[in-house]
Design goal:
Helix 5 packs across helix 6 (197-215). The protein has 458 residues and is α/β, with parallel strands linked by helices. It contains 14 helices and 16 strands.
Length: 458
């Protein structure tokens, strides 16, 4: 599955149980004032209420005397105003909600689904929507035409399923731009409710695909839980945690050796190296233990087993209130956590460590081992985690810090209008149907807009 292949996510993706659908139809997930509106309109419809000659905003345009407000057909547009753009996600789920819950319960308690009476236009998930700051220049990503009383109880849910994943996808995209396409590990599972992992991971995946499309790259998606990959067919990945090291009594090297012996070869061997707040030393200790095991099998020609001990990378995750032991000059506040200097220290410490290991090799092994050992150390990647966001990544990249992969967590979920990451969606009625035609009608400052990427859904 890829964006813009013309295929939308199926209803099954969203796991909308019968109970959820029932509650959606009943307005359980709606702001009550929307339900109040639907209740009033439904009653007016049953009474055959007509608007008559009362004052109105269309009085100079069209005769509204015979308008039956309870059955008024409207055009509602959904949009976001994040500057300068948003990567829109959640459209397919919004359509699924409309399909399942548009309609009303009759006097006998039967739900009458009226989705087929709607006209719906929507963009595809992954569409990039620009906004210049003018509220009259918004680009709608979803248009609904039909009786408001049939879908008004869904407005809250529709806005929610658009807002959250669009915010995450846009944040991920911005991080990808800051990282210049380097792999971004998706690590915010612990910062959100577990029920959100599916949609969070899908938003991340969509952002990666959008970035690849825009920049003609092939960046990979990597999530930390299986649930985060559920909607797009991905699987969670990971290596060791601080808990792993604690279970090995603080011996990171032994933890990595046993991990490498037991775990399948497709699981990358990445060592967490900040347990003792000495990332350079711990990286070297792990390299030494893993290299010795690797070399013992390699020189015997057992390359398959040797590769189990090929160290893929090291991950410093130094706490934001700690200064790593390798930073010995007057550190100051800028030395806290994972810093450019710490990453450089690790890189230098690993690249030069082959000379130390070389001296420990038997004389008869040195000629064969020298280029292999040097490459073994230089190939170890550095994966940084701990407090990274687009701004911090941008500063690392600008300074040429030798990071290979970034792991990013809570900042991908952030929503703050003060720093420009507000992705709250808004929905407005912008036209009403009178006399067989739709006429402009909206609150001051809003109005009907169009967007070339809207596609007819129904």
């Amino acid at each position: 599955m890829s964006i813009f292949d013309g295929k939308r996510l199926t209803l099954d993706t969203f796991k909308m149980t019968d109970e959820i659908v029932y509650k959606m139809r009943m307005g359980w997930y709606s702001d009550v004032y929307f339900n109040n509106t639907v209740r009033v309109l439904t009653k007016l419809s049953a009474e055959g209420y007509c608007f008559g000659n009362k004052d109105n905003d269309l009085k100079d345009i069209v005769d509204v005397k015979q308008v039956t407000n309870g059955d008024l057909e409207v055009e509602m547009q959904f949009f976001t105003r994040r500057k300068p753009f948003s990567i829109v996600v959640g459209v397919d789920e919004a359509i699924a909600i409309l399909k399942e819950a548009t309609g009303y319960y009759d006097v006998d308690g039967r739900f009458i689904n009226t989705y087929d009476s709607l006209q719906v236009e929507a963009v595809m998930d992954g569409t990039k929507v620009e906004y210049d700051g003018d509220p009259l220049h918004v680009k709608p990503i979803l248009k609904i035409r039909g009786k408001y009383k049939d879908f008004g109880h869904l407005e809250t849910a529709l806005l929610g399923v658009l807002s959250v994943p669009t915010r995450i996808a846009t944040n991920v995209y911005n991080v990808m731009v800051a990282a210049k396409g380097k792999q971004i590990l998706f690590f915010p599972a612990r910062f959100d409710h577990y029920k959100m992992q599916g949609v969070d991971g899908y938003a991340y995946w969509i952002a990666i695909q959008r970035y690849n499309l825009d920049f003609e790259t092939s960046a990979l998606a990597s999530v930390s839980t299986h649930a985060q990959g559920d909607w797009w067919g991905g699987k969670g990945g990971g290596t060791i945690s601080h808990s792993t090291i604690a279970c090995f009594l603080g011996n990171t090297s032994e933890a990595m050796l046993q991990f490498s012996r037991i775990m399948p070869i497709e699981t990358p061997r990445i060592a967490l190296v900040d347990f003792h707040n000495n990332c350079v030393l711990e990286s070297q200790q792990v390299i030494q233990a893993m290299w010795l095991e690797y070399w013992s099998y390699y020189k015997e020609g057992d390359y398959e087993t040797a590769n189990q001990y090929k160290l893929y990378g090291v991950r410093p995750d130094t706490s934001g209130n700690m200064v790593d032991a390798s930073i010995t000059s007057d550190p100051g506040v800028n030395a806290l956590g994972v810093t450019p200097q710490l990453v450089r220290n690790i890189r230098i410490g690993m690249d030069n460590f082959w000379l130390v290991l070389f001296e420990g090799l038997p004389i008869e092994d040195r000629e064969l081992a020298e280029p292999i050992l040097k490459k073994y150390c230089e190939d170890v990647k550095i994966i940084v985690t701990g407090g990274f966001n687009a701004d911090k990544i941008k500063s690392f990249e600008a300074a040429g810090v030798p990071v290979d992969i970034y792991g990013v967590g809570s900042s991908l979920l952030e929503n703050s209008s003060s720093n420009g990451t507000n992705n709250d969606f808004t929905a407005d009625i912008v036209r009403v149907k009178v006399g067989g035609s739709y006429w402009p009608l909206s609150k001051t400052g809003r109005g009907a807009s169009d967007f070339s990427e809207l596609e007819t859904v129904i």
